[in-house]
UniProtKB/TrEMBL annotation, chain B:
Segments passing through the bilayer: none
Domain SsuA/THI5-like: 39-254
Catalytic reaction list: N(6)-(pyridoxal phosphate)-L-lysyl-[4-amino-5-hydroxymethyl-2-methylpyrimidine phosphate synthase] + L-histidyl-[4-amino-5-hydroxymethyl-2-methylpyrimidine phosphate synthase] + 2 Fe(3+) + 4 H2O = L-lysyl-[4-amino-5-hydroxymethyl-2-methylpyrimidine phosphate synthase] + (2S)-2-amino-5-hydroxy-4-oxopentanoyl-[4-amino-5-hydroxymethyl-2-methylpyrimidine phosphate synthase] + 4-amino-2-methyl-5-(phosphooxymethyl)pyrimidine + 3-oxopropanoate + 2 Fe(2+) + 2 H(+)
Listed GO biological process terms: thiamine biosynthetic process
UniProt key word Transferase: yes
Family in the record: Belongs to the NMT1/THI5 family.
Annotated Pfam families: NMT1
Protein name: Thiamine pyrimidine synthase
GO molecular function: metal ion binding; transferase activity
Oligomeric and partner information: Homodimer.
Matches recorded under InterPro entries: NMT1/THI5, SsuA/THI5
Length: 634, 334
């Protein structure tokens, strides 16, 4: 996640830096062109602002002298010149030079010239008798051009740059204006270089000033000015392109182009602007390389800032991620231990109130609940184990209550007796019993107590005790049941009850007395295979109500005939679909095993019941007692 | 100071009346050059710098003339022993016309350096000047004095009558289109105009020698009196000067360095391409291209006669000295 965050942020950063680089480049390039153009025009204006007023003064003077037809005393002319110098500190000297033929008669000089000589003003006659100035540009150009003129700048042997402005003195005549001479002023140009040097053209940028002839008047390289022209440089470098640019620059029209400076070899923007006064041109160069350097610097700063930010972001994300993942990692490390059952595993301490802290708290609560639950479970299990143990003992005790030794009377060949009791739980509510009242009489009993489990078992034990004791009092089954019922009903608040069938068999003759307190009718299996149900007489179940009477029934059991006593756990055994085993299947099963001994017969019956029940849980106690009277050998 | 052209009045005074001239050792040979430092005098600078004059037993001091005082003025005023001058100017100075107030100078030639004319007229093509006949009625400027003779013959030959105004020290009037045409030296003004950004195709040029006109130009001159006293020095001067030009031809870049240094020392604006242009053309004029009529340094008698005839016809001279008087060194060697 950290890598992803850093990668995506890095990509975005790169895109922003690139976009900014190109955007900067475009904007700075446009700005540089504007700057070059603006500064060229601005410095041209600045120079014009200094030359323009002087131009006006000289032209005014020339106009005055012309209108006066030079009719002005020499002293007045000198006074005028001195006043001009005093009022205009930039003017070095001023001359009035006339054609010798038109020299006013009262003038002692041909060309009065006043100039600065330190703090005072000096005077000179430039003509000095021979009018040699007639061929000088400052005289000849206004003379033949008929208009005021700025000379090509020149450099004094003192190193001072000068330029001369001269305006023609034109005397109005009938034939038109007559050229009489010129008024001039010499202007020091020391300030030109500082104007050009102070232009804010950036690193490697510079300004130049060209005369009409393309001669450099100002150039950052001192050896260039006045020696070289843009065309001499072009010639020296055999650079036709530079010559073309020079021609455009001195054409009098402003311009701008992309150019490689010959002085610095830098790709640059070159702008130029002509002056309104002198026919010179200001050129300004802004270096593209310096510009690109500036852009690169900007971009570098931006990239470094961005990288710093990215680093901070990565650290922050790492810290935040760690604050999230550390508890989660600790949780995920603890979870397998917890799941393997080690509930004492330490969990991270939740910090703050975020989702991770809540999850950690929830994990802790779950662990604690688990621990508590397991502890409860252990207690419950221990209790159940104890109960189960007790139940097992109860089972053993219950099983001990019924006779389990078979054959019970091995010395009696006249009978075959077998019983099976399969409680549905550890202890059941069924019981069977048999015992000899004397050598001839055998009591058989089977009972089913209402309910199951321990209460039923206890009730069963009580019922059996009463039954056994009552048979000792009086062996009539009907009366026995009546008394047992009375005993059970006494204090039977739980309203428990039991069904019970008991019979007293006289082994000598097969006479059977029996009584039934609501129990399933026993089955009589005759020797010929006939099945009979001993369903009468039948009374109510024992326990709920006192003072009940039970009739005693009688029958003769022939040798070979058998009785099957059973509880409803047999006939009501259910298969998985809920179908009952039923009396029909019981009867036919019993018919099928008429020839078998009691033990084998009951096991066959039990097997058949189990087959019927299949996987279904045993829902009720299964208890069966089978007695067969055998023919006495004697 | 007020502008007086390439050299100021102050500079003139310094060179003319003070400095080296005032404290001249007696055995120094003072050589006056026509103008301020430029390649026109390159061979002389090299002869001086490379010790060719010294090897010839000469201690030469160079003096530059100017607009106020020409090299012949310096010679005439005994401020120079030898001077360079145009042939026509020298003849005019030696044989002024009878009508002139000027006194004839006692001039003799030591060597004829520039063998042919470099004089020309340059005209603005866009003012309608394609050929000589188009000059008729046009305002043009040219130098006065001996030069005007060549132009007068040229105008007469084509029967044109331009309005001529005197031309002085610059071609700015022409560049500002105050005149339709101006005089130019092929090795100098022609290239200066080109260096002012004017392309050749905008101009029509008339080189006088193409029309069979013009005169040989720079030569070395002295007075016959000086020559009589220092004949051997004059011969040595001629040989060493020509050797200087040979050296300049063999070492053009070194020569240009020297010329530019001379210009810088004199405070004269100069640039190398212009000085190279001038050097190449002047070298061709002095040492020839192999088909010059005379060996370097010698004046062809026929050319001399033609020049004299032209000057006489123009009324610029009276009776000119004969060839052998004018060129005694050549006459004596022949």
């Amino acid at each position: 996640m950290l890598l992803w965050t850093a990668g995506v942020a890095g990509l975005i950063l790169c895109a922003i830096v690139l976009w900014n680089y190109f955007n900067f480049r475009e904007r700075l390039s446009a700005e540089a062109q504007d700057r070059a153009r603006f500064l060229a025009a601005g410095s041209a204006d600045q120079i014009d602002a200094r030359l323009g007023p002087l131009q006006g003064i000289i032209e005014g003077m020339a106009l005055t002298l012309g209108m006066q037809a030079l009719d002005l005393p020499e002293s007045r002319v000198r006074a005028l010149q001195e006043a001009l110098l005093r009022a205009n500190p930039e003017v070095y000297g001023t001359a009035v030079a006339v054609l010798p033929a038109l020299r006013p008669a009262d003038w002692t000089v041909l060309s009065p010239y006043v100039y600065r000589d330190g703090d005072r003003l000096g005077h000179q006659d430039l003509g000095d008798g021979d009018a040699g100035y007639l061929g000088q540009d400052w005289f000849a150009l206004p003379h033949y051009l008929g208009r005021a003129n700025w000379s090509e700048p020149y450099i004094e042997n003192t190193g001072v740059k000068m330029v001369t402005y001269s305006a023609p003195i034109l005397i109005p005549t009938a034939d038109g204006p007559l050229f009489a001479g010129v008024v001039t002023c010499d202007i020091e140009l020391g300030w030109l270089d500082s104007i050009m040097a102070e232009l804010p053209l950036g690193e490697a940028g510079y300004g130049v000033l060209l005369s009409k002839n393309g001669t450099y008047i100002s150039h950052p390289r001192p050896d260039i000015a006045f020696n070289e022209s843009v065309f001499s440089i072009a010639e020296a470098r055999n650079d036709a392109g530079l010559r073309g640019v020079g021609q455009a620059m001195v054409s009098g029209e402003p311009g701008l182009l992309s150019w490689i400076s010959w002085a610095t070899n830098d790709p640059s923007w070159l702008a130029w602007h002509p002056l309104d006064t002198a026919d010179w041109t200001v050129g300004t160069l802004v270096s593209k390389a310096a510009l690109n350097k500036e852009i690169l610097e900007l971009t570098k700063v931006e990239a470094m800032t961005g990288l710093g930010g990215l680093l901070l972001l990565v650290i922050s994300v790492w810290l935040v991620a760690r604050s999230i993942t550390r508890p989660i990692s600790a949780l995920s490390a603890a979870a397998p231990q917890l799941s393997s059952g080690n509930l004492d595993t330490a969990l991270p301490t939740p910090q703050g109130d975020d989702e991770v802290a809540q999850l950690t708290t929830a994990f802790g609560t779950m662990r604690d609940n688990l621990k508590r639950y397991i502890s409860d479970l252990a207690e419950t299990t221990a209790a159940r184990e104890r109960i189960n143990g007790e139940l097992r003992i109860a089972h053993d005790i219950q099983m001990d209550l019924v006779p389990k030794t078979f054959p019970p009377f091995p010395d009696r060949p006249d009978m075959d007796l077998y019983a099976i009791m399969e409680p549905a739980r550890e202890v059941g509510g069924d019981f069977y019993d048999f015992f000899q009242l004397d050598a001839d009489r055998l009591v058989l009993a089977i009972a089913d107590v209402s309910g199951k489990g321990v209460p039923a078992a206890l009730f069963m034990a009580v019922t059996r005790s009463f039954l056994r004791s009552e048979f000792k009092v009086d062996a009539d089954p009907g009366r026995v049941l009546q008394r047992v019922n009375d005993e059970l009903a006494d204090g039977n608040d739980a309203c428990m009850f039991a069904t019970l069938f008991c019979a007293v068999i006289r082994l000598a003759d097969g006479h059977v007395d029996y009584a039934n307190a609501g129990h399933n009718p026993p089955l009589r299996l005759q020797t010929d295979g006939e099945i009979g149900w001993i369903d009468k007489p039948c009374g109510t179940a024992l326990g709920p109500l006192p003072d009940m009477t039970y009739s005693t029934g009688h029958l003769i059991l022939q040798p070979g005939e058998a009785l099957l006593l059973y509880t409803d756990g047999v006939t009501e055994a259910m298969d998985p679909s809920g179908a009952l085993y039923g009396t029909g299947r019981l009867a036919s099963q019993m018919q099928g095993c008429n020839d078998l001994g009691c033990e084998r017969c009951l096991h066959a019956l039990l097997a058949d019941i189990r087959e019927h029940a299949a996987d279904a849980d045993q829902s009720d106690d299964i208890t069966m007692v089978m007695f067969r009277r055998l023919a006495s050998q004697s | 100071m007020l502008a007086l052209g390439p050299l100021s009045a102050a500079q003139v005074q310094t060179e003319a009346h003070s400095g080296p001239l005032a404290a001249r050792p007696p055995d120094v040979l003072r050589l006056a050059l026509q103008w301020s430092p430029q390649s026109q005098f390159a061979g002389i600078y090299m002869a001086q710098r490379k010790g060719l004059y010294a090897d010839a037993g000469l201690r030469v001091e160079l003096i530059h003339a100017n607009a106020e005082r020409s090299s012949l003025d310096l010679l005439h005023g005994d401020d120079a022993d030898v001077a360079t001058a145009f042939l026509a100017d020298a003849i005019v100075a030696a044989a002024p016309p009878a009508t002139s107030q000027a006194e004839a100078m006692d001039l003799v030639q030591i060597a004829q350096l520039v063998q042919h004319s470099n004089l020309m007229l340059l005209a603005w093509k866009d003012l309608g000047i394609q050929g000589p006949e188009d000059l008729d009625g046009q305002m043009l400027s040219h130098w006065q004095g001996a030069f005007s003779a060549s132009f007068d013959v040229f105008f007469a030959a084509y029967d044109v009558e331009p309005v001529v105004i005197p031309q002085y020290y610059s071609v700015n009037l022409f560049l500002k289109r105050g005149v339709a045409a101006c005089a130019a030296m092929q090795y100098n003004e022609y290239h200066r105009i080109w260096q002012a950004g004017v392309d050749d195709e905008r101009l029509t040029g008339f080189l006088m020698r193409d029309y069979g006109l013009g005169f040989p130009e720079d030569g070395l001159y002295t007075t016959s009196d000086w020559l009589d006293r220092h004949g051997e020095l004059a011969r040595a001067m001629r040989r060493a000067t020509l050797a200087g030009w040979e050296y300049a031809r063999a070492h053009p870049e070194e020569t240009l360095d020297v010329v530019l240094a001379e210009a810088a020392a004199a405070g004269i604006p100069a640039n190398r391409p212009h000085e190279r242009w001038m050097l190449e053309h002047i070298l061709a004029s002095i040492l020839g291209t192999g088909n010059a009529p005379e060996p370097p340094g010698a004046l062809n008698p026929t050319v001399y006669t033609q020049t004299v005839d032209t000057l006489v016809a123009a009324g610029l001279i009276g009776l000119a000295p004969d060839f052998s008087t004018f060129t005694p060194l050549d006459a004596r060697t022949q």
